[in-house]
Every structure is written in structure tokens, then in C-alpha cells.
């Protein structure tokens, strides 16, 4: 039987969540504090931990750190109001470890939130706990060498839509960012497609893959990048700042009704859907919609579908590690208009739901490792020289 450890200092919350989880067949253990949970976690050996972000005897950052050290376990964070310094440090744990998140209502528990907790626990119980320790170790080591992806270019475009790779220094970007010394961007070989739009969607396990992607994505590609990461609004602005420090692209949290230029990247806010509403010579215009219509917000599907409806040039849709099925309909929409679609593979996805359901649509062009996604995007958004294409076409041929 799957064992769940519920950690919350409020007895009423422990009771409500514990009863709801027990009603669907889980074995439930309760802890009133982080210290209590950590003292008992080895003996309890839970399959999933639900953890309130504010506990009276310490912060959730330390709890996650010690859980992942003592007994690596998927964690569901129940996010309430956080001090600024706690939110900043907690994002480090969110980006590094397998953590999912739900906003906890300030006014008290309600039926929808409790049902969401039960559903999220059900998704997390499928995570292979033995892979968490390996993933945590791997997260501390940077992959230094550049990687190569497939050789596919965007299907809706040809060399007539290509432009010579940019060699400019982007004045919008402080080139002295804190990018790791051992990370190199993917080389751009050939010509870039004019004004490529890249939409990246992710959920649980996605932050660190998105970070690696942005580390390796070259400014010379001159794409416009939209990132939809399932994450509470408390964290999305900080997540954008984190990506900005490691990327050649300037990255910020998206704001209402703004124009984006090639070479810029934005992160969807955690409390709104990011919609693409215009695309012309001025760039790409996006707006925010806080009316939740898809069951999850921000919605990957909303951003990809509105991009497919609006973008007039090269379009690339990417889905990374995450729970649920958000992104599958978006990938179908991108594919329907001739865009290029990429999914992270199962071996490198901490939670394979989102890529798996996208792949099941039959609309994914490439399934690649997490560390090869930036290269796959570059290949999709460039046209290789004719002699390179000819060489690729003759690879593997033998004399009769």
C-alpha cells in the first residue's frame, strides 16, 4: 500500500487531508512539524510527502534538503504566504529536487483543493524514488560539452525564410551574467530561420531542465522564447530571474499586453495564462488571462494553441518533464500548422506524464534527452548548408 506522510502544524489540515487520502486507499501518517517528520521519516519510509511551506520550527528548504538526503522522496509543497527570503531560498530546492506544488487557500481548505491534493499525490506516487538520489547528484554536476540533436528543420519554412546568423552583441542583455563557466551554448551551424517562436512547457521536474535549456540556447538563434512552467505565482518571477542569470537571453516574467522582440524570453506568471495575440513586424504581442479555464494555470495548452493560431513564421513547441496532460493539445495545435514539436524522453524525465501524453498524440517530431533539447531547438530553427544536407543524406550508404 502506498504510504503518504502529511506534514502540517494545523491539526484541522492534517485531519482533512489525512482522511481524504485514506478514503482513496492510501496509508497515511501525520506529522505536526518538520522536526517530527524528519525524526520519523526513515521509519515511516513514505512514498510521497506533503509539506506545508511555512512551519513554526523551521523552513521548508531545510526539510526538503534533509528529506532528499535521508530518504529521497517526491514532495508535494502546499504553498501558503511566504516571506521574501524564504521564497527565494525555497526556489533553489524547487529547481533542484522533484517537487510539485499547489497553492493552499488562505481562507481555509475547500473541496476543490483537497481533491487537487489527492490527484497530485496520485501523480507523484508514480515517480521512481530510486531515481531521485541519482537526479539530485546529477543536478550538482554541469554537463560541459555541447550536445547535438536531430537534423530536422521547421516544416513550414524553407531557405527563403532564413537569415544569416546574428553576430550582434545584444544591448538588451548584460553579457556579464552569472552563467556557469563550464556551460557552453549550442553552436549555430547554417542560417537561422527568421523570427522563430519557441514555446516551452513543463511541470514537476521541469525547472532544472528548463534552466539547462536556457543555459545552452545561443543568442545567435535570435528566437523569441515563451516558457510555461507549472509553478505558484510566488515563484515564477524568481524563476525568471534565475533563468536570466544563466542565459544569453534576457529573461523576465511576462506582463500584461507587451510586445516581445526576437532574442527575448519570458516566463508565464503562476496565476495567469500567457496568450499570444499578435505577430507582425513589431514582434510578438502577448497578454495575460487570469480566468482559469483549463484546470491548471498557467496552461501550456493555452500558450501553444494561441501561438499556433497567431504566429505567422517558424514555430517550435517543446514539452518537458511534468505531471498531467497539459501540453498534449498544444502540441497537436503546433503540429497542425506545420510547426516542429519536441518532447523530453522518459529516461531523463523525472515525471513522464506530460511528454508521454504529448507523444501519444502522434504529433511529436522528436523525442530527445533533456540535455539535448537546446540542440534540437537550434536544429529545428536553422537551415543547414546544402553541402551539409547532401552529406547527411548519404550517411550510411554503401556500394552495391
Automatic annotation (TrEMBL):
Example of a GO biological process term: chemotaxis
Per the record's keyword annotation, is Hydrolase included, yes or no? yes
> Is DNA-binding tagged as a keyword?
no
Q: Where, by residue number, is the active site? A: 203, 230, 326
An example GO CC term for this entry is:
cytoplasm
What EC number(s) has UniProt assigned to this enzyme?
3.1.1.61
Q: Which UniProt keywords apply?
A: Chemotaxis, Cytoplasm, Hydrolase
Mind telling me which InterPro entries this protein's record contains?
Answer: CheB-like, CheB_C, CheY-like_superfamily, Sig_transdc_resp-reg_Me-estase, Sig_transdc_resp-reg_receiver
Region spans: Disordered: 145-185
Question: Biased-composition ranges for Basic and acidic residues?
Answer: 169-182
Where does the record locate the signal sequence feature? Answer: none
Q: Which residues form the CheB-type methylesterase domain?
A: 187-384
Q: Name one Pfam family in it.
A: CheB_methylest
Q: Which residues form the Response regulatory domain?
A: 3-119
* Recorded catalytic activity of this chain's protein: [protein]-L-glutamate 5-O-methyl ester + H2O = L-glutamyl-[protein] + methanol + H(+)
Q: Bias category Polar residues: which stretches? A: 148-164
One MF annotation (Gene Ontology) recorded for this entry? protein-glutamate methylesterase activity
Which Gene3D superfamilies would you find in this protein's record?
Answer: 3.40.50.2300, Methylesterase CheB, C-terminal domain (3.40.50.180)
Q: What is this protein called?
A: protein-glutamate methylesterase
What species is given as this protein's source?
Answer: Natronobacterium gregoryi (strain ATCC 43098 / DSM 3393 / CCM 3738 / CIP 104747 / IAM 13177 / JCM 8860 / NBRC 102187 / NCIMB 2189 / SP2)
